[in-house]
Structures are given as C-alpha cells and as structure tokens.
Amino acid sequence: MQHFPIFVALAGRRVVLSGGGEAAIAKLRLLLKTEARITVFAPTPEAQIETWADDNRLRLVRRAMEPGDAACAVLFYAADEDAAEDARTTALARADGALTNIVDNLADSQFITPAIVDRDPVTVAIGTEGAAPVLARAIKADLEERLPTTLGTLARIGKSFRKMVEALPAGRRRRDFWADFYFNRGPRASGEDEISQTLDTLLAEHMAAGDKAGHVAFVGSGPGDPELLTLKARKALDTADVVIFDRLVSPEILELARREAVMVDAGKEGFGPSMSQDQINRLIVEHAGAGAQVVRLKSGDPTVFGRLDEEIDAVDAAGITWHIVPGITAASASVASIGQSLTKRGRNSSVRFLTGHDIKGFADHDWKVLARPGEVAAIYMGKRAARFIQGRLMMHGADPATPVTLVENASRADQRVLSSTLGRLSDDVAGAAMDGPALTLFGLAPRDAADVVSNMTNEQEFA
Ligand code: SAH
Fold first, then answer.
1. Ligand 1 centroid, distance to 436 Cα (angstroms)
2. Pick from 76, 111, 117, 122: nearest CA to 96
C-alpha cells in the first residue's frame, strides 16, 4: 500500500487552492462539502468560483499565490493546470507546511483524493493509487446503487440515539439492535420523524426480547479457495461472535470472518504442538455457554476426518444447541483439479475415504480389497504414510503401475499436482518435498495432461 487512507478533520481548518478553471471547480465542489475555511488564489477565476465567494462559501484572492499565502493550511491543492505554475505554488505551500496535492499529478503529490461515495456521515473512499480510475468509478457507481440514499440520515439520527441503546447489554445485543436498524427497519422508515419513531419502537422490542442462547455451528470452510465457501458458511461467519479455527483454514477465509468476532486459533494439526482435543472441546463449550454464537470452522467438510463427533458430544453434554454446515472436502477439490471423477461406470462403483494416520499411528485398512484393479481411494493425511501404504498394497498384490496422484494445496493459488504410480510412490513423495496439506488419490491419474490445466487461477479459467 503506497497511500494510507485517512479521514482528515477539516472543520474550521484552512485549505488553500491555487487555480480558477475547471480542475479548480471540480476540487472545490468536493471541498465545499466540508466545513473547512477555503481560500482560492486565482487572477482570473471562472464565474462559478466568484458566485461561491459572493455567497461567502470561500475566500477568493484575485492574484497568483505568493510566499506565506498557505500559512497554517492543512491541505493545499495546485489546480492551475499548468505544470510550471503548479510546481511553483506547490513549493510555496510546502514551505508553509501544508500537505500538497497537484491535480492529475500522482508522482508529485503528497496525498491524493479518493473517489468518494457520500452518505454523510457515512463516507466511502475508494483509491487505486492512480492505477485504475475506471475501476474506482465502477466501484463507486456500484456502491452508490447499493447504499440507500437515506443511509446518511439513518446514521445521523442513529448516532444521537447511541446513548439510549446503552440500555442494552454491550456486545451481541447492541450489535443486533443496530443491524436491525440499519439493514432492516431503518431503510423502511421515511422522514426523520418516522426514523426516530422506529428507533424508539425497535429499542423497546429488543429490550423485551432478552438474551439469545449460545449456539455452535460446525462449519466446513472448504479446501482453501474462498470462492468454494458455501453461502451458509459465509452467513455463519458473518454473524459469529467467536470463530474457533483449525490450522488448515486458509487466511483468505479468515479474512472474511466478522471483524469484531473473537478469532481463536485451535492450531489443530496432525503433527507437532497443538491444542488437545479436550482443550478444544472445553473452549467451544465455554464460549457457547456464555451465550456466544460460536463458529467451529474446519477445513474441507467438517464430517470428514474432523473429529466432529467428539466436539458434538461435548456440546450436547453441555445442553447447547448446534448444527452442521457442510463444506467441500479436499477429495472433491483434488479430483476436480485433475479432471477426474471419484466414481466411474465400469471402473469403480465405490470410493473409499481413508486416513493415512489415526490416533494410534499409521492406519490399517482392508488392503486386500483396495489392491484389486480399478479401486479408487482418497487418502487424507497420507503423505507421511506413503511408504507404509505402498508396502501394504504391494504386499496384497496391487499392481505397481496403479496410478497414484497427490494434490497439494488443492484449490489454492499454490496448488501442485504430483503424478506417480504405486511402485514409485514413496520415492516420488520424498522427492517432491511438499509442505502443504496433500490429498493422495489412489487409482487415479490426471486426465490426459493436454486436457487438464491444473494450478490455474479463476481469471485464467474464465478468460
Ligand atoms: N475435513 C477436511 C479433512 C481434514 S484432515 C476435509 O474435508 O477436507 C486433514 C487432511 O485433509 C490433510 O492432511 C490433507 O490430506 C487433506 N487436505 C485438507 N485440505 C487440503 C487441501 N487444500 N489440499 C489437499 N489436501 C487437503
């Protein structure tokens, strides 16, 4: 980020602008929305600027700027549309200590003015660091359309009501009240009286409603790509008080969680230091028991190798309500990335989800059945168990030429596909040095390499 967005307090403070043409008028239109004391230097100003001066909305000085003219100014705009004059006035203003902007000259400006969506007191500033003014305008138009025109009035009246709302307990109850006001009941009221009336009624309703009980949502976050999050997962994240997440949940998805939500890293991983399952269970129960809406966020689908049942048992034992939001499991994302199906007529009519590891160590399975031709298995946590799995399957007569594919970081930008065979598996895995989570697809090879473009971003895909 080369420009840091801030909102400058301008009420009663001095802003100086040099210029009297179109560029000056455009900037002044924006500045006149503030309560700044504006001085314009222009030997030959346009009529519009004279009118503003006559109406006492700004002070007009009919000459070019001189040293000391920008004394005490917070901001200075060079809007003469003449490179030499702009450089001269800017140097003067800098000497006076003002922060300077040259219209349409990003490189020599100390600050730039964003595109603005004005629902005063709600103001949205959009910046692209000069890279894409078209984009800024499109975002502005989009927001203009989405934010009700009454939003400013709602916010202004709402602000004067804040003290009253302290009658509700801080936290969720107050947030619910304001969400109800801004997004539901407020926009339906018309006129200031009706809006004030709505606030009164709404507060009485929310006071009467009492506390909501805590609740736990076991939510699947998918394999990592935030676009593979379900709408229900998104909604649960939007309303969570507390999000307890695993190590494998991607940072992009955590970004989407509500800003005010308490984020708890349960750091559960197969190997190395982590919070014990008992600690996690206790944590979930503790938060929900205190009345929080808890999202227990698990990578992929919570019902697949997620120790979900232990957590449900703990929540049940505490008499807390819960529900499950399914997610896209790593196996689905992995086969999708190699352009294959998990099942196929004439090849396999069943597919196994296996874990390479369980609490006791390498997990044992019905290797004899798996060793038969055409079998397909999605092996989770199979990287470290590669040699073990290879040994067991070969011992039971599996063909060393059986394809095995590892998909690391499925659906993420750093996705990698390792195409191997049972015979070469452990050597290939050792050589690939994968540090991300990887899914082992036994019995599947990437569809004809020419047809599959793995590791592709969405933009590329749809370009
Ligand atoms: N509930 C999860 C699985 C958790 S077990 C799900 O449904 O996907 C953890 C294992 O899942 C990892 O060891 C790895 O084998 C697999 N995994 C999770 N995310 C993955 C990803 N983005 N790419 C490949 N494998 C992944």
1. 10
2. 76
